[in-house]
Every structure is written in C-alpha cells, then in structure tokens.
C-alpha cells in the first residue's frame, strides 16, 4: 500500500472496468512521471467527457449534438432500427459495414435481480418511435423530415441471460404492431471454435438458427 494521493489514484483506477490492481498501479506511476501538459490534457478531456457528452433525443446514442450523426444521415435506411444495449455496440456493428439502417440504444438489459426493469431502459422511447410518436428529425443540412415509418426492428442484445430475456420481452411487446417485422440477430458457434468449449445457451441458439446447406 502506498500513501496519500498516489494510493488514492490507484484506488480510483482499480474501480474502472477491466482494470485490476496491478494495471491501476502502472497507470498511476505512469501519470506520476508524465509531463504537466499531458496531465492537463487528460484532466481537460475527462472534464469534457462529463460535461460535454449528450445523448441523441431519437436513438439515445452518445452524441455531441441533439441528434446524432447516424439519425441525421439521410442516406441511411430509416425504415430499419437495430436495437442494442449500449452505444459501444453500435461501433462494433458499424465496423462490419453490413448494416445501413438506424439504431436504438436501450441503455442496458433487463436484470430484475439488480433492479433493472423496462422502466430503467429506453423501451418506451422505442415504442414511441415505432408508433411514429417522435419529434421531427433535423438532418445535418438543416432540413426537417417527418418521423419515418419503421418496417423492421432487429434486436441485437447480447447473447447472454439478460440479453435473451430482453429480446424475448421486446419480441412480445412489439408483436402488437401490425406489419412490423421483428428479428433477432443470429448467434451461435464462432468460427474456429470447438464444440467442447461452447456454452449451452450459445449452442442452443446455434441449433435454432441453423440453415440448410442443400
């Protein structure tokens, strides 16, 4: 155990996800030896992170403006909405280059044991979007468009217990909308994976999502 501000910094870094005690110690000592201007830039960036980050009023993605760049992009297919748990999931999907629709960020997944129910997530906002009860969309060029009619909702929650429960709940909720297609992002055995290391939930989803090869 160190003393004073150094230990305080190590304790705070240790609270970050994915940062263990040894990593926290390395980060603290690195910053201790850093140039003052480097620390000032880091401090300024953290301050802007807390005060400058906003959430898109349409999809709840992290945004620097009232409407995020994806919702404001008129070239994207506004009739398809991909539902994800967190904003970071959008970046993963965008890197594939396979999806050109829009998104909706729930802000988490259903987890009753930890007090997270539908009211703690952006579920109501999703229903309002599908029902067309949202404000007009202001694009980046300043043009205004009516709320688009949504034809398909792709549920892309994580393939774990909480994500599956969330997908099942949304599926039941959205089936009340006539003409709306609700699909679940496929998941299963990863390429290069061995069956002996695949968990039961993943294997079950792989069987459900099997496709014919002849």
TrEMBL record:
Domain of life: Bacteria
Keyword presence, Transferase: no
SMART domains, A to Z: TOPRIM
SUPFAM superfamilies in alphabetical order: Recombination protein RecR
One GO term (biological process): DNA repair
The keyword Acetylation belongs to this UniProt entry's keyword annotation: no
InterPro entries: DNA_Rcmb_RecR, Rcmb_RecR, Rcmb_RecR_Znf, TOPRIM_dom, TOPRIM_RecR
Annotated Gene3D superfamilies: 3.30.60.80, 3.40.1360.10, 6.10.250.240, RecR Domain 1
Pfam families: RecR_C, RecR_HhH, RecR_ZnF, Toprim_4
Signal peptide positions (record): none
Keywords noted in UniProt: DNA damage, DNA recombination, DNA repair, Metal-binding, Zinc, Zinc-finger
GO molecular function terms listed in the Swiss-Prot or TrEMBL record: DNA binding; zinc ion binding
Zinc finger (C4-type) stretch: 56-71
Domain spans labelled Toprim: 79-190
Membership in a protein family: Belongs to the RecR family.
NCBIfam families associated with the record: recR (TIGR00615)
PANTHER family for this protein: RECOMBINATION PROTEIN RECR
Role, per record: May play a role in DNA repair. It seems to be involved in an RecBC-independent recombinational process of DNA repair. It may act with RecF and RecO.
Protein name from the UniProt record: Recombination protein RecR
Lineage: Bacteria, Bacillati, Actinomycetota, Actinomycetes, Mycobacteriales
Name of the encoding gene: recR
């Amino acid at each position: 155990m160190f003393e004073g501000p150094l230990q305080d910094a190590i304790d705070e870094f240790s609270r970050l996800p994915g940062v263990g005690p040894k990593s926290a110690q390395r980060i603290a000592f690195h910053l201790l030896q850093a140039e003052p201007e480097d620390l000032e830039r880091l401090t300024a960036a953290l301050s802007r992170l807390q005060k400058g980050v906003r959430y898109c009023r349409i999809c709840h993605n992290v945004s620097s403006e009232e409407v995020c760049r994806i919702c404001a992009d008129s070239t994207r297919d506004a009739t398809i909405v991909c539902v994800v748990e967190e904003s970071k999931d959008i970046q993963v999907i965008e890197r594939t280059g396979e999806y050109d629709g829009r998104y909706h960020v729930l802000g988490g997944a259903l987890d009753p044991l930890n007090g997270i129910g539908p009211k703690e997530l952006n579920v109501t906002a999703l229903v309002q979007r599908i029902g067309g009860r949202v404000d007009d969309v202001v694009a980046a060029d300043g043009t205004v468009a009516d709320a688009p009619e949504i034809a398909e909702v792709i549920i892309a929650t994580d393939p774990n217990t909480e994500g599956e429960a969330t997908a099942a709940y949304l599926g039941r909720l959205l089936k009340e909308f006539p003409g709306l297609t609700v699909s679940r992002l496929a998941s299963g055995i990863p390429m290069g994976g061995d069956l002996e290391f695949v968990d039961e939930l993943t294997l079950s989803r792989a069987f459900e999502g099997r496709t014919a090869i002849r």
